[in-house]
Design a protein that fits this description.
about 400 residues; mainly alpha; about 75% helix
């Protein structure tokens, strides 16, 4: 199939990333079979376009070969293609064949691009993660203040007198009684549905819910009975224990937020380093890159849609004229501005979540593929095992 003319021809780095080739394998094959000058050079050039594993797989399955399939997908393929193109160049008898020279020059550019590393990181992903770090850092500070607040409250609780303990006991009793009422309402609701339910799956589901509600009510009733019998000393211990649990939870939240903030700060330079593949690796994973690019575009479209909705919201003013001649004006400004903020925040969240996901995935995949991380790790582990075995053998002697 001859090369089709495109409305817009990519150039430079973009052309190589897309796998663009200005000619097709059929163009070369036709020139080779037509008995034109430099036939051996065309044969070698055609062989070079068959080096890629993508081409070989599609040839076996009888599928149509695309232009981007010609690009080499490994160092070995790149070197073999380089050798064939060199041989084709040396096999030129008639130097006036400009078309052949153009094909060979383009193949040489593809080979040179394939054997070099290229920066492949996305500024959108980096900016999205930086915004996420700012938010996480703010939340980390907030969580730290929350820990300090609970610790101050614990200090106050430890100094409670009998009056304060009694007030706490009353609040706890009221809270548990409210929970018992809620569980009782759930029991009645589930029993009501079971009385009329016919479907077996529905009955089974509501029986399970009824059992859970009954257990919850029983637990609350036992807790209430214990609380009512408890002495002031026991209630005081209960209040201290409850606050200590709040402190532990707050510290856990603070540690988690601190970890993720530090994690993404470290991840940014690691991501930039990891996203520097050889050209042949970009060709090998071009389909995956299109999928990830599609995810990025989809998130931008969704975020753009949410931002457009926010921009389209307008404040409406209502003017009311009363019978006494007075006029009042009301508007929904507060509601509209709150909705605008919510939509813009949602748009930002979409960008941030997508950026964090893509950065984590791209960094892991990049380190493994672009720097042979797994083979190197296996080699290191094997060396450690060999050293340990050598030490044991030496100690045995």
């Amino acid at each position: 199939m001859a090369k089709k003319k495109e409305a817009k021809i990519p150039k430079g780095k973009k052309a190589k990333e897309m796998g663009y080739v200005s000619f097709s394998k059929e163009d070369i094959k036709n020139a080779e079979e037509s008995g034109v000058k430099n036939q051996r050079a065309y044969e070698l050039l055609y062989e070079a376009t068959n080096v890629s594993k993508h081409v070989q797989k599609k040839n076996k399955k009888g599928r149509e070969i695309n232009d981007d399939d010609i690009y080499p997908t490994s160092l070995d393929e790149t070197l073999r293609m380089d050798a064939l193109v060199t041989q084709a160049t040396n096999a030129i008898d008639d130097q006036s064949d400009r078309e052949l020279k153009s094909y060979l020059s383009e193949m040489r550019d593809i080979i040179d691009w394939s054997r070099k590393r290229h920066w492949n990181f996305s500024w959108m992903i980096i900016i999205g993660v930086i915004v996420s770090i700012i938010f996480l850092n703010y939340q980390t500070g907030d969580a730290e203040e929350n820990v300090k607040r609970h610790q101050k409250e614990l200090t106050t609780i430890e100094k409670w007198n009998d009056s304060a303990i009694a007030a706490y006991k009353t609040r706890q009793i009221t809270s548990i009684e409210s929970n018992i009422k809620g569980a009782s309402d759930d029991i009645k609701r589930n029993e009501s549905v079971l009385d009329t339910a016919v479907n077996k799956d529905v009955k089974k589901r509501y029986q399970e819910w009824l059992k859970n509600s009954q257990k919850r009510k029983k637990d609350y009733e036992e807790k209430l009975a214990d609380l009512k019998k408890a002495s002031n000393k026991d209630v005081h211990k209960m209040a201290i224990k409850e606050k200590e649990e709040w402190i532990d939870n707050a510290k856990g939240s603070h540690r988690a937020l601190y970890f993720w903030t530090a994690f993404f700060i470290i991840l940014i330079p690691l991501y930039i380093f990891a996203e520097r593949p050889f050209g042949y690796l970009m060709s090998r994973y071009r389909t995956e890159a299109k999928v990830l690019g599609g995810i990025k575009k989809l998130s931008l479209m969704l975020a753009g849609g949410l931002a457009s909705v926010a921009a389209g919201l307008q404040v409406t003013e209502t003017v009311t004229k009363w019978s006494d001649g007075t006029t009042t004006r009301d508007d929904n400004g507060m509601l509209i501005y709150a909705m605008k903020f919510a939509f813009l925040a949602a748009a930002l969240v979409v960008i941030c979540i997508t950026s964090m996901f893509l950065m984590v995935y791209s960094t892991i995949a990049g380190l493994i593929r672009n720097y042979d991380l797994i083979p190197k790790a296996k080699l290191m582990i094997q060396q450690i095992k060999n050293n340990q075995a050598a030490k044991k053998e030496s100690a045995g002697k």
